[in-house]
Automatic annotation (TrEMBL):
Domain Fibronectin type-III stretches: 91-188, 306-403
Gene3D superfamilies: Immunoglobulins (2.60.40.10)
Organism the protein comes from: marine metagenome
PROSITE patterns found in the cross-reference section: FN3
Entries under PANTHER family matching the protein: OS03G0226600 PROTEIN, OS10G0105400 PROTEIN
Name of the protein described by the UniProt record: Fibronectin type-III domain-containing protein
Length: 736
């Protein structure tokens, strides 16, 4: 305690002090009156004071004459031995900021410190580096301020710091230290790393949406600190918000919008900007854009078959369809839906199936019915689900038989000739059952043909009536050949040939073989071989059979024989010798040929080696024997066919020979026939013919003139010695 006093007279002898708990009742209850001498202060110890109670010090003075002054009492002192109550401190103003973008300053704000006794006298604040465990700013006295801004700092980006605050009261009691939460320095902008548009259940970027789609805008951002918020907008250009204004997103990975107000085909952008907890604002990031597609794909063309459109199919279990021309100028075609039915657009055979983005599809596992028409249908679906008009093919008809109907075979074949007398029975076999066919029959020579047509399910028979014209060509045209499925085959032209009259063996030659058959039929009264009478000109005769053999039959044969030999024919001179042989003799004037008795017909064919030799054939005749002959001078050939009606016919043929000066070769080829054209013998006889003069002959030499040699020919009627003398123009002998 401290006091002062004075006494102007005798002076102060002593001071006394006492301590009480009352300022009015001074009894020295705490400290009885105690002399301090003349000191004006005293330290009072050994007390048992109670915290919070007020104590009063009283002082009185006694002068040297023992006069005692009045008691003077202090205003009291309260006991305070408790430190101030600690409060809390935050980085920021009213709440703790965990992030700081400024590296040069930080602000501390505290509250809650109190002292119920002497009261708070002052505060101290400190800034500390958490990561490096050191003070950035040591304890700083800020008096009674409850906020303090640190300035001129050099804080590190990504550094972590915290604040400390303590209070001291009037009597010097120091509170506990209040520490803030850590705050981190972040002066970098947040960055958008991913931004795209998609739909529920999808994870990939989608560029096109349907008008009623909900668009999910997915995004990912990054920051060296922590992102506070995402702001989202949609614009018609990047970084703009003319469609949907900037707004904070509900969550930190996506936002959803609807498309019902967006225009078809227009390009829109999702725009995003980030703000981190340090209030750093990132740059605007835009997506690659998206569009709305409200228009279906343009329809194309659908064809049955692998490439070219088919009208018929032969498989009952599968069929293929192809299509082209479908297009979509918006989101593009995603896939096609393909179906199959018995009507255009029908689906009863195959319900629509998604075949992907291909251009053809094979239906399998089917049970198609013969004769039923089926239609393939295709619809295009774009990437947002718009579906085009369902387009159907023109249909194909199920035909279990391969290919269109056709004439599979015909009878008779080309090697069989039609009978002039009986006509013919033509049969046309089809490759499958046929519903209808047009049939026309023509004669190449223009004859009016009589026939009867008989239709079967798989064939047509034609009964062609005789008589027919020799060597005529019959053409049958089959058109509009339509099967049970409606499939029409190609027109078919079939050709048949009438036999040549008198060519009984159908070897296209009129010769002794045919003559033998005529004679056989004649003598046996077999009218199958009857020829006449005939109408027309050779070789196009029409036989009018009267069931009688007479001269008209022979005339028909003879005319055909001469018609045939009217065209130069190379004779058969290479016959192999067998069977009956001819008796052939030759002299200087003639060739004699003797025919065996049982032979009823034959042919003698002659070939001479040069034009100086010739064989004179007998005149043609009819009667007991038939003789027909023809000479082909240009070929040095001649032929004679003969036949016998009875055994009285001449069997020896004497044929005059004419020849020149030189030897020649005569070749005789023969064929001998019995009944019905059976060959009884044939062969080839070759003879050398040497001319013999009837008187002496000396021929002109050749060449003439000559140098150095010439040839002189002469002839002798008999053998003998010959002397030949040569003279020059002056008559002088040159050589003999």
């Amino acid at each position: 305690a401290h006091w002062n006093g004075s006494d102007a007279a005798s002076g102060i002898k002593k001071y006394e002090y006492a301590v009480d708990t009352s300022a009015t009742t001074i009894t020295g209850t705490i400290k009885e009156w105690t002399s301090a001498g003349t000191d004006t202060s005293a330290t009072i110890g050994s007390l048992s004071l109670v915290e919070g109670k007020t104590y009063y010090v009283s002082v009185r003075a006694t002068d040297k004459l023992d006069n005692v002054s009045d008691v003077v009492t202090s205003n009291g002192v309260k006991i305070d031995i408790t430190a101030p109550t600690v409060g809390s401190v935050v980085h920021g103003t009213d709440h703790h900021l965990h992030w700081l973008s400024d590296t040069s300053g930080a602000k501390a704000t505290w509250s809650g410190f109190s002292d119920g006794a002497s009261g708070i006298k002052e505060y101290e604040v400190l800034l500390r580096d958490t990561l490096n465990n050191k003070n950035i700013v040591d304890w700083t006295n800020v008096s009674l301020e409850v906020t303090y801004s640190f300035t001129a700092l050099a804080l590190l980006n990504n550094g972590q710091y915290y604040l400390k605050v303590r209070a001291s009261d009037v009597v010097g009691n120091l509170s506990h230290v209040a520490e803030s939460s850590v705050f981190q320095v972040d002066n970098e902008k947040p960055v958008v790393t991913t931004l795209f548009e998609t739909m529920e259940g999808k994870t990939d970027d989608i560029d096109w949406f349907a008008p009623d789609d909900k668009i999910i805008h997915r995004f990912v951002g990054t920051d060296n600190g922590a992102i506070l918020q995402y702001e989202f907008a949609i614009g018609t250009t990047d970084s703009t918000d003319d469609i949907i204004e900037w707004a904070v997103t509900v969550n930190d990975s996506s936002d959803t919008t609807v498309t019902d107000t967006l225009e078809d085909g227009k390009l829109y952008y999702t725009n995003l900007k980030l703000k981190d907890k340090a209030d750093n604002l990132g740059d605007i990031f835009s997506s690659d854009g998206f569009r709305i597609d409200g228009s279906p794909p343009k329809s194309g063309q659908v064809s049955d078959g692998a490439s070219e459109d088919i009208d018929f199919s032969e498989s009952t279990t599968s069929t293929i369809v192809n299509w082209s021309g479908f297009a979509d100028n918006g989101s593009g075609i995603s896939h096609y839906l393909v179906s199959l039915g018995t009507t255009s657009g029908g689906e009863e055979v195959q319900q629509p199936v998604d075949v992907g983005n291909i251009r053809n599809y094979l239906f399998t596992g089917l049970s198609l019915e013969h004769g039923v028409t089926y239609y393939s249908s295709v619809a295009a679906v774009d990437s947002v689900g718009n579906e085009s008009i369902n387009v159907s093919s023109d249909g194909f008809t199920m035909d279990v038989y391969p290919g269109p109907p056709r004439v599979a075979s015909s009878k008779p074949d080309e090697t069989t000739f039609l009978s002039l007398i009986n006509g013919g029975h033509l049969v046309f076999k089809f490759s499958e059952p046929v519903g209808s066919a047009d049939l026309s029959i023509y004669s190449k020579l223009g004859d009016q043909l009589q026939f009867e047509r008989i239709d079967y399910s798989d064939s047509i028979a034609v009964a062609l009536s005789g008589p027919l014209t020799s060597l005529d060509t019959i053409q049958v045209e089959m058109s509009q050949l339509t099967d049970e499925s409606g499939r029409v085959g190609n027109d078919t032209l079939l050709t048949f040939y009438n036999e040549m009259i008198a060519d009984y063996n159908h070897d296209t030659a009129i010769d002794a073989s045919d003559l033998s058959m005529l004679v056989t039929g004649w003598t046996s009264e077999d009218y199958f071989y009857e020829l006449g009478p005939v109408e027309g000109e050779a070789p196009y005769f029409v036989p009018i059979i009267d069931l009688e053999y007479d001269l008209r039959d022979l005339m028909a044969f003879t005319r055909m024989w001469h018609w045939y030999h009217g065209t130069p024919q190379l004779l058969n001179l290479a016959r192999v010798n067998f069977g009956d042989e001819l008796d052939v003799t030759v002299n200087d004037k003639s060739l004699t040929v003797t025919i065996p008795e049982h032979v009823i017909a034959g042919q003698l064919a002659f070939q001479v080696s040069d034009s100086e030799l010739s064989v004179t054939l007998p005149e043609e005749k009819t009667g007991d024997v038939i003789l027909l002959s023809h000479t082909e001078a240009g070929l040095l050939q001649s032929v004679m066919d003969f036949a016998y009606f009875n055994e009285d016919g001449e069997r020896n043929f004497v044929l005059p020979l004419e020849y020149g000066r030189h030897s020649s070769t005569l070749t005789l080829s023969y064929a001998l026939y019995g009944k019905d054209g059976v060959v009884t013998g044939q062969g080839v006889v070759t003879m050398d013919v040497t001319p013999v003069p009837v008187e002496f002959v000396l021929n002109q030499n050749y060449p003439n003139p000559f140098n150095p040699t010439t040839q002189i020919e002469y002839g002798l009627p008999v053998d003998g010695q010959v002397k030949l003398t040569v003279y020059d123009l002056l008559g002088q002998e040159v050589r003999s």
